[in-house]
Amino acid sequence: MMPAYTAPPFHTHAFYRELQKTFPHTTARHLMRATRALLVDRIGRVRREAVTHKDLDNQAYLFRAAISELRAEITMSTKNDSAAIRTTTAALRREVDRLDVKMKEDVGTLKHEIQMELDTRKNEARSQIKQQDIAIESLLNKTVVDCSDLRTLVEENKWENMRRTVTTIAVLIITTVLGMELRPKPPPPPPPHAPSMVMPSAGIGLLPRGHMDIGQPRGEGEREQDEWT
């Protein structure tokens, strides 16, 4: 079995002779001793801090064990995470299905409410249109009645004016007739006188009484007869 550590070879006398070729005797000795002391210190540090093959095997074994443990832990964690993810996915799927059902129910309810609202609005619109038609018909009937009343009033006024006019004309005619009937009759005309003879020399001939000159004065009876005529 090989030892854990073997000291490197260092021939001090050979090193000292090589130094004497360049440096003086004292300087070569001091350099050799300093080199030897430095080499001893470095070798001691290496012995204290260096890792042997056995230590490397132990560290490799521990590293492989840690890797295996970490792999097992990662595998277990992955399995647990996968199970948790599957559980969460199933819960989310159930939640989505429940939300889908609820959404369908809400959409159906909303459609029903909208349809009811539309039907209500249609009925209200029909009622309003019917009320407007009734109001228009009532207004038309009232207008027709008012026009009929106005026409009747106009006809009554016309007939009243006509009656008054006819009554006035009748009263006027009756008054005129009564006035003519109640007026005193003129006295009978006097008997005609004998024609008078006029001298031809005077240029006046015998003329009937009816052919008298206009400028000749008339009697009272003749004037009354002319007025009656």
Automatic annotation (TrEMBL):
Compartments in which it is found: Membrane; Mitochondrion
Pfam family, one: CCDC90-like
Residue ranges, compositional bias (Pro residues): 185-194
UniProt keyword terms in alphabetical order: Coiled coil, Membrane, Mitochondrion, Transmembrane, Transmembrane helix
GO cellular component, one term: mitochondrion
Transmembrane segments: none
Region described as Disordered: 183-229
Name under which the protein is recorded: Uncharacterized protein
Source organism phylogeny: Eukaryota, Fungi, Dikarya, Basidiomycota, Agaricomycotina
